[in-house]
Amino acid sequence: MAEINHFEYGWITPALSYALSVLGSILGLVCAGRIRIAGSAGQRALWGLLSAWALGGTAIWAMHFMAMLGFAVQGTRIRYDVPLTAASTVIAVVAVGIGLAIVGTGRLNPVRLVGGGIFTGVGVAAMHYTGMAAMRLKGSLGYDGTRVVLSVVIAIVAATVALWLAMTVRRPLAIVVSALVMGVAVNGMHFTGMSALSVHPHEGQEDVSGAGVTTLLVPIVLAVIFGVVGLVYALLAAPTADDRAAAAYLDGRRIPEPVAPAPAAAPDPVGLRARSTLGTPGTPFPSRRDMPPR
User: Fold this and answer.
1) Rounded Cα–Cα distance for residues 181 and 177 (Å)
2) Which of the residues 63, 104, 232, 271 could staple to 292 if both were Cys, CB 3.0 to 4.6 A apart?
3) How far is CA 146 from CA 1, 129, 196, 256, 258, in A?
4) Concatenated DSSP letters for 138-162?
5) pLDDT (tens digit, 9 = 90+) per residue, 215-236?
């Protein structure tokens, strides 16, 4: 078996991966909180999509790729299959989005929570092993079954806790603490799965094909930056519950504009108005009973 190093660049890559998972968890929890106060189904769907991107795309997938930058195998370079790498991103975002839809539709109960956690956890594990299958190197990959199962269990537990936090946590301090815990869980799942990996080198194999780390790093970093900026902008631009309550209060205190009264007719005690119509073409001559009394 080839020698594997999970920390080729020291503690820089795991520190950055943990920071990404915490940042994505904070944004995801805040966006998930907006789902509960959304005023329409369209707004709930939008905040659910943003939360899925923050949790699945940043806290899970970007963390996974950043940690993979420190992965090295002695005697071979590592390349990545771009379609499989992109597929792992889609798997992570879709799995989290469906999990949020399961727990966020209707009243939260243990059945929904466990079902959403299992679906999301299995999806996160599928993302992880799809991303590892996208590696191209001079050798074949092997896995320890016990550690693979353990990583899937960790993913399910972490996903269940994350979904519960997304539906219940509201205060800023609680969100930050929850994000720190979620970061530990996500990184724990990743490195547990990586510890199950073994590489059996193939002697005489031609050089591997695929995209290098530096080729993928720039678009991934740009996607993370623009994604985070977009999420922050969406959160700052959207009205909060306090804003809507203040607007409703002002609407209730607004005094309606007075309606202008209709102009009153001038008094006509001697019938001058009726007499003024005499002689007008088309006006019938009044009879005696129509004449005003003298």
Assistant:
1) 6
2) 271
3) 19, 15, 8, 72, 78
4) SEEEEE-HHHHHHHHHHHHHHHHHH
5) 887 888 888 888 888 888 888 8
How far, in Å, CA of 25 to CA of 27, rounded? 6
Closest CA to 187 of 164, 148, 154: 154
Residue 148 contacts residue 109 (beta carbons within 8 Å): no
Amino acid at 63: M
Rounded Cα distance, 140 and 198, in Å: 8
**Continuous segment of H or E residues that includes residue 60:** none
Is the CB of residue 110 less than 8 Å from the CB of residue 131? no
> Residue 21 phi/psi, 5° resolution?
-65, -40
Question: If you write DSSP's letter for every residue of 49-99 in order, what string do you get?
Answer: HHHHIIIIIIIIIIHHHHHHTT-EETTB--EE-HHHHHHHHHHHHHHHHHH
Give the 3-state secondary structure of residue 81: coil
Q: Give yes or no for residue 65 having a pLDDT over 60.
A: yes
Query: How confident is the model over 8-62, as pLDDT tens digits?
Result: 888 888 999 999 999 999 999 999 888 877 778 888 888 999 999 999 999 999 9
Q: How far apart (Å, rounded) are the C-alpha atoms in residues 73 and 199?
A: 8
